[in-house]
Amino acid sequence: MNIGEVQVARKVALGVAIALSVLIFAVSSSIYPGGGTMHELIEWVGVVLIVACILGRTWASLYIGGRKIDQFVTIGPYSITRNPLYFFSVIGAAGCGAQLGSVTVGFIWGAIAWICFHVVVRLEERLLLERFGAAYADYLRSVPRFVPNPKLWKDEATLTIQPPRVLQTFADATVFLLAIPLAEGFEWLQELGVLPTLLNLP
Q: 14 lies in a domain?
């Protein structure tokens, strides 16, 4: 197992997740009427989740930008969850799904992202165990894989930050915002009868 194989697995998993999610997006609609209070509320909650994803991923990249796999980071967000970048991505995926005005679609998108990241994380853990041995094994036992435990927080007084890496992570995360016009476009095509509505979900 090497970093190249892990990166390929990550790309394949993300490709599968995106394809499945867009397919569900295209043929689903909310039981709540577009423009209605509940529909709009769910969409806005989704926007909040997407913003949290963008900010959370950027925050995590301050600690690990350019060092993932090559170095063993255990401070900041990495002291409370082993995979903050993926954790915030799952939140963002749920927010994207919510842009249809459906809690169920938001949950499905989040679940698909979690499953795909879980596969990638297992591969990354194998690689890190090979590289860092007992120290990483202790980290595995003490810090949760996804859901943060704030009680474990620890930090350092200073950080070495790579601004280009942080900015790249921020730019990459803003892609989640594309779900907003994408959802509106699918809803419009469904209203026109161009796309079938196979699922009406709460």
A: no
Domain with 163, as residue range(s), is 34-201
Asked if residue 20 belongs to a domain, the reply is: no
**CB neighbours (10 Å) of residue 115?**
14
Q: What is the CA radius of gyration of the chain?
A: 18
The pTM score is 0.89
User: Which has the closest alpha carbon to 126: 13, 8, 3, 23?
Assistant: 3
Amino acid occupying residue 117: F
CA–CA dist 27, 196 (Å, integer): 6
User: What are 88-111's pLDDT values in tens digits?
Assistant: 999 999 999 999 899 999 999 999
Q: Which residue has the tokens 């249809």?
A: 100
Exposed e or buried b per residue across 36-74, where buried means at least 16 C-beta atoms within 10 angstroms of its C-beta: eeebeebbeebbebbbebbebbbbbbbbbbeebeeeebb
